[in-house]
Amino acid sequence: MSTIGAITPIVIASDRAPRLPLPTPMKLNSTVALTLILLVSMVAAGLVSASWGSSLGREALKGITQPDTRPSNNKAGNRAGTTRREELAVLPESDIIANVKVRMNGGTGKDLKASPVATTKAATTSAAKTELPLSVTSQDVMLEVKSARQQGELMVLAVSLQNGGKQSIRFVYDALNVTDEQGRTLKASMEGLPAELPAASRAFPGTVSISANLLDGVQKVSLSLTDYPDKRLQLQLSNIPLVR
User: Fold this and answer.
1) Runs of H (alpha helix) within 88-197
2) To 5 degrees, how large is the angle CA 214–CA 144–CA 201?
3) How do residues 1-10 score in pLDDT, each as one tens digit?
């Protein structure tokens, strides 16, 4: 009986390595993409806005320099300012008129000089001499303030309006502007004057009433009136003295 040898299994090695699965490409989420786009847009808009604002600021500050705050320069500036103020002087009106008359008559006149102290005294004297009545004329229409007296709790100004022109003039007296020396507006009412001044009219009398409570410490007032609706007239009286 023949003996059967063991059969050795033959393994055939393959030259190819086993195939691995390829990675799938990652898909970009639409929400993430939108967020990135918005961020980029915001950064770009910020850069553009900053550049534009910087350019506008430079244009606005052209010609503006920082003030010199050094003590030495301040002293020099103060001395220069004092010198300029001391050089300002206003000549008296009477001297000017006299000099003009001399020159018109063939004379040579004289050099007029005035010191600041003398000018201040002259201005004070002129202001103190302001008396009523006062009048102003604009395009043949005359506004006159004849008197100012306190009556009870009211300061009453006696006024008149006269039209010497060839056309009638209309007024809205609610637009009357009354101010004190500080430029503050005072509430006032005008009575007795017609709403329309006829051409070549007589002087129409009226009154301007101001509450005395508004006039504490006020020595003078100013009136301003214009026509309606053209506003061609400018009737303005300043430094009207108040008598209490």
Assistant:
1) 93-104, 116-128
2) 130
3) 444 455 555 5
